[in-house]
Amino acid sequence: MSAGQSHVASAVIAAPAGRVFTFMAEPAMLPRWSFGAWEIERLDGGIVRGTSLFDRSQVLVRIAADPRTLSIDYHLGQTVETMQPRINVRVVPGPVVGLGEEECVLTFLAWRGAAMTGDRWRRLTAAHELEAVLVKSLFESGQIT
Fold it and tell me: Which member of 41, 65, 103, 127 lies 3.0 to 4.6 Å from 99 by CB, making a disulfide possible if both were Cys?
């Protein structure tokens, strides 16, 4: 059952899980796939400031990646003090779900903040669905090796 407080988007990618994880965990790669963090600027403490393609608003992003579980938490906020782990990406190796070694499943999981408007939430969920497809295309077209 869903109360509209979370959203999941996934794609099967014809690339090894480790490669996809490394790409998704790299702050410099955010502008290649994230509609919410274009034109990034690196700040102190592993934080980047990104600009939304939708409305030009800015957000701070800190990436906490766990190579053991192939899980990435994206901490987001307007200030360092308000950053929260609102987006999680998990890369599942193909064999875990019956696929080949050279395949994986990329899954985005987002949680809706109480102050997020319906329009903003819809943009985020639509973006994650497209971002999963975009990452798939980047790997499968050879743009990311």
Answer: 103
Task: Find the angle CA(43)-CA(46)-CA(91) to the nearest 5 degrees.
Answer: 135
Residue 35's alpha-carbon distances to 24, 41, 78, 112, 127, in angstroms, are 14, 15, 17, 17, 7
Q: For 10-67, what is each residue's pLDDT tens digit? A: 999 999 999 999 999 999 999 999 999 989 999 999 999 999 999 999 999 999 999 9
The distance of Cα 36 from the centroid of its chain, to the nearest Å, equals 10
pTM strictly above 0.70: yes
Distances from the Cα of 145 to the Cαs of 21, 65, 103, 139, in angstroms? 13, 20, 14, 7
- At 61, is the secondary structure helix, strand, or coil? strand
Half-sphere exposure of residue 113, counting CA atoms within 13 Å on the CB side?
Answer: 14
Q: At what angle do helices 118-140 and 17-25 cross, to 10 degrees?
A: 130
